[in-house]
Design brief:
heterodimer, A: alpha+beta, Peroxisomal Thiolase, Chain A, domain 1, ten-stranded mixed sheet, two-stranded antiparallel sheet, globular, B: mainly beta, OB fold (Dihydrolipoamide Acetyltransferase, E2P), five-stranded antiparallel sheet
C-alpha cells in the first residue's frame, strides 16, 4: 500500500524498573519526544500532530511543554491495551497521507512507579459489565486472562512449557547486547526460567512483562519533508488494525477463543503489503506474556499452530543465526515494558541498520502489537 | 466453601444479568427475535441487533475448557486466597456458552482440561442486601 508517510526519527527516555525513574511519566514522554525529533533533525515547531494508544499524556500538555504548535491532528486508538502500538503508527500514516498533518510524533509513556501497576487489580465491591462474570471468581489481571487463553492453546496444539521459555530466552539473550535494556548484564538461563515462581499457570514470573518506567517515540512525516533530513527515511509499507465479528467479546465468549486477535490483522497486512511471512527476516512480537506471542506467530502466518514447538526451538527466533530473530532489542521482557512501543522503535532501527542485534540487509521489518487483547494491530516497515 | 474472601467482589445486578445471578439456574440470555444465545448477556443481540431478551435454562453440566491457577495475589485482599484456580466451563447443552467460575473441591494441581463438572450456587448477600446466587463448579 505504501502511503505518503515515512519514519524519520526515533527516541527513548532512559528505561527504569518500576519506581526507578527520577522523572515523572510526563517528563519521560517529553524526553523521548525531544530525542526522536532531534534524531530526525527537525525542530519542535515542525511537529503538528500526536498519536498514541491508552496514553494519559495529553497533546494539550505536550505541545505547551515542548513548544509544539499550531497542532493539526491528535488521535488515540480505542481499547486493545498494548495492541494499539502498531495501530498508533497507522493513525499517523493515515493522517499524513490524507493531508491532515505533516509531521506527527507517535509515542507512548508509561511510569508504573508513578501510576497504577499493570500487574495488580483494584478492589471493587460490585463488579459491573462483563467483569461481573469474571471478577467475583478472581479473574482479574491481564496475566490471568492470557493464562486462560494460553492454557487452552497449549492443550489444543501440544505447546510445551519450553516453547514459552524460548520467547523469554530470546529476549534476554538479545538484551545482553543492548545497553538501553533493563536486563542488560543480567542473562537468564533455561533452568532459572523453569525454577522461577508461578504467577498464573502456565506463566512463570519470566513469562510476564515487567513493570517499568519510560517512554519511546518515533517521528512520522511526508516523503517530501523527509528528503533533506538527517537520516534515510524508513517506509511504512503497510499497517493493519482490526478484528473479526465478535472478536474480543468479553469473558472468553469470542467464538475463536483462544486467539491473539491477529488472524484478520495478518490477512490484511500481507494483502496490503503484497508480501507474506516468508519475506520477513526479522520481527518484533509484543510480549505481554509468552503464550500470546506464540499464538501471534502462528496467526501472522509464520507457521501452523502445531508447528510452533519446532519453530521456536534450536535458536530459530534468536539473533544472529535464527531464521526469524524476534525482539532483537530484548523486547518488553528484556529491554523494557513501555507498553510495547520499544518494539515499534526497534523495528525501525532494524531497517536503519542501527540495532544492537542487527540483521543484515533488512528490506522489511515487522512489529506485531499486544496479542491477546482486541483489536489487534501490526505494522510493516521497510526500505524507503 | 468460597475460594475468595466473603467480602470480595460480587456482581452488580442489572436487567440483563439478574436472572443469571439470582435464579440458581443456568439461565442463558436468548434473543426473542432470533433465538440466539449469548453469554455473558449483552445489551444488543450480536446476531440480529434486537434488544429484547428472554433466557433458556440449560442443564448445569459442562466440561473444563480451560483454567489457570493464580499464584500471585493481584490485590492484597487475596493474599490468603492464593493459590486459587479459575476455570472456564463449556456447557454440555451448548458448548459455545462458556462460563467462568471456581472449582473449590479439586486441588489446584489436579485440575485438567476436559474434567466433567456440574454447577452449584453460592448464596451471598451484597452490601446493599441483594441476594446473589453465584454459580460455582464441582466434579460430577
Amino acid at each position: 500500500m505504501r502511503g505518503a508517510a515515512v519514519v524519520v526519527g526515533v527516541g527513548e527516555s532512559t528505561y527504569y524498573k518500576r519506581g526507578g525513574s527520577p522523572d515523572t511519566e510526563f517528563q519521560l514522554a517529553c524526553t523521548a519526544i525531544r530525542r526522536a525529533v532531534e534524531d530526525a533533525g527537525l525542530a519542535m515547531a515542525d511537529i503538528d500532530g500526536f498519536t498514541s494508544y491508552m496514553d494519559r499524556n495529553e497533546p494539550v500538555r505536550l505541545s505547551a511543554a515542548l513548544g509544539v504548535g499550531p497542532l493539526n491532528f491528535t488521535a488515540q486508538t480505542f481499547g486493545g491495551g498494548g495492541n494499539g502500538a502498531a495501530a498508533a503508527v497507522t493513525l499517523a500514516d493515515a493522517a499524513i497521507s490524507a493531508g491532515y498533518a505533516e509531521t506527527i510524533v507517535v509515542f507512548r509513556a508509561l511510569a508504573q512507579g508513578q501510576f497504577h501497576r499493570y500487574g495488580q487489580a483494584g478492589r471493587v465491591r460490585r463488579a459491573r459489565g462483563a467483569g461481573a462474570f469474571t471478577a467475583p471468581y478472581g479473574m482479574l489481571s491481564a496475566a490471568q486472562i492470557c493464562a486462560m487463553q494460553t492454557m487452552r492453546y497449549m492443550h489444543e496444539h501440544g505447546i510445551t512449557q519450553d516453547s514459552l521459555a524460548e520467547i523469554v530466552l530470546a529476549g534476554f539473550e538479545h538484551a545482553q547486547r543492548n545497553p538501553r535494556a533493563i536486563r542488560y548484564g543480567t542473562p537468564l538461563t533455561r533452568e532459572q526460567y523453569h525454577a522461577s515462581r508461578w504467577i498464573a499457570e502456565p506463566f512463570h514470573l519470566y513469562d510476564c512483562c515487567p513493570e517499568n518506567d519510560g517512554a519511546a517515540a518515533i517521528v512520522v512525516t511526508t516523503k517530501e519533508r523527509a528528503r533533506d533530513l538527517r537520516k534515510s527515511p524508513v517506509a511504512i509499507v503497510a499497517g493493519a488494525h482490526g478484528l473479526e465479528h465478535r472478536g474480543g467479546v468479553a469473558a472468553f465468549a469470542d467464538p475463536t477463543f483462544p486467539t491473539a486477535y491477529h488472524r484478520h490483522v495478518g490477512t490484511k497486512l500481507w494483502e496490503r503489503a503484497g508480501c507474506g511471512p516468508q519475506d520477513i527476516g526479522v520481527a518484533q512480537f509484543y510480549e505481554n506474556f509468552t503464550g500470546p506471542v506464540l499464538i501471534a506467530i502462528a496467526e501472522m502466518g509464520f507457521c501452523e499452530p502445531g508447528e510452533l514447538n519446532d519453530f521456536v526451538a534450536d535458536g530459530n527466533i534468536r539473533w544472529p543465526d535464527g531464521g526469524l530473530p524476534i525482539n532483537t532489542a530484548g523486547g518488553n521482557l528484556g529491554e523494557a515494558y513501555i507498553h510495547g512501543f520499544g518494539n515499534v522503535v526497534e523495528a525501525v532501527r532494524q531497517v536503519r541498520g542501527e540495532s544492537t542485534c542487527q540483521v543484515p540487509d533488512v528490506e522489511l521489518s515487522l512489529s506485531v502489537s499486544g496479542p491477546g487483547y482486541a483489536p489487534g494491530s501490526a505494522i510493516l516497515f521497510g526500505k524507503a | 466453601m468460597s475460594v475468595l474472601p466473603d467480602d470480595w467482589a460480587l456482581p452488580a445486578l442489572n436487567a440483563r444479568n439478574e436472572q443469571w445471578f439470582t435464579s440458581g439456574s443456568i439461565a442463558v440470555q436468548r434473543c426473542i427475535a432470533c433465538s440466539t444465545r449469548q453469554h455473558p448477556p449483552e445489551e444488543i443481540c450480536h446476531r440480529c441487533g434486537a434488544s429484547a431478551f428472554d433466557h433458556d435454562v440449560l442443564a448445569p453440566t459442562g466440561t473444563v475448557f480451560s483454567y489457570t491457577v493464580a499464584h500471585y495475589a493481584v490485590n492484597r485482599a487475596l493474599a490468603d486466597s492464593v493459590p486459587y484456580a479459575v476455570v472456564l466451563v463449556s456447557l454440555d447443552e451448548d458448548p459455545a456458552v462458556r462460563v467462568v467460575g471456581n472449582l473449590p473441591g479439586v486441588p489446584c494441581d489436579a485440575i485438567r482440561i476436559g474434567m466433567e463438572v456440574e454447577a452449584y450456587w453460592e448464596e451471598r448477600t451484597a452490601e446493599d442486601g441483594a441476594a446473589i446466587r453465584l454459580p460455582q463448579w464441582r466434579v460430577r
